[in-house]
């Protein structure tokens, strides 16, 4: 029997792409800073000149899957992290945006074989979103951890037999 687990100690060997939505950037910028803090404290170079980390800003969460797909297909990244905030109070098409981004991100991950972390908050209010982006805790940090774990796990798993 083999048991496979992601490790948090070999993060420095990962290249990570982040897609972040500008819509509700009061929230998404905080998610991004929590996420980068996590990556940096696990040995990933998050500086301006980093060759390990790229960040792509998109207008809103609806656009996340397309850019995540481009990043995943590039072969450059072992993991892609998506960050967004869809707030029900703000939009009558909340359900449309949430369905599109959640299904889209899952499809990109499945189709590309690259883990894509779903870091899109879906809340009823701005207050709830802010609580998850730093007022109480910052889920951006958790998304960083999940990215490291998945990147490491995918490296450890056997490749498809040739
Ligand atoms: N995009 C979000 O990321 N969050 C939202 O809450 C939101 N609202 O409220 O509408 C939102 N809309 C923009 C959407 O994601 C697209 O950018 C836009 O429809 C253009 O395609």
Key features of this structure:
162 residues; alpha/beta; 5 helices; globular; binds 5-nitro-6-ribityl-amino-2,4(1H,3H)-pyrimidinedione
The succession of helices and strands, N to C, reads EHEHEHEHH
Distance between the termini: 22 Å
Count of helical stretches: 5
Instruction: Say which CATH homologous superfamily is assigned.
Output: Lumazine/riboflavin synthase
Gross morphology is globular
CATH C-level label? Alpha Beta
Please give a structural write-up.
The protein has 162 residues and is α/β, with parallel strands linked by helices. It has a single domain, classed as Rossmann fold. The protein contains five helices and four strands. The protein has helices spanning 25-41, 64-73, 94-112, 126-132, 139-156; strands at residues 16-21, 53-58, 79-87, 116-123. Strands 2-1-3-4 form a four-stranded parallel sheet, with helices on both faces. Strand 3, helix 3 and strand 4 form a beta-alpha-beta unit. Helix 2 (64-73) packs parallel to helix 3. The chain is globular. The mean pLDDT is 95. The structure holds 5-nitro-6-ribityl-amino-2,4(1H,3H)-pyrimidinedione.
Short description:
44% of the residues lie in helices and 18% in strands. The protein is an alpha/beta fold and 162 residues long.
Which SSEs are present, and which pair or pack?
Blueprint: E1 16-21, H1 25-41, E2 53-58, H2 64-73, E3 79-87, H3 94-112, E4 116-123, H4 126-132, H5 139-156
Parallel strand pairs: 1-2, 1-3, 3-4
The chain binds 5-nitro-6-ribityl-amino-2,4(1H,3H)-pyrimidinedione.
The site of 5-nitro-6-ribityl-amino-2,4(1H,3H)-pyrimidinedione (INI) has 15 residues, from strand 3.
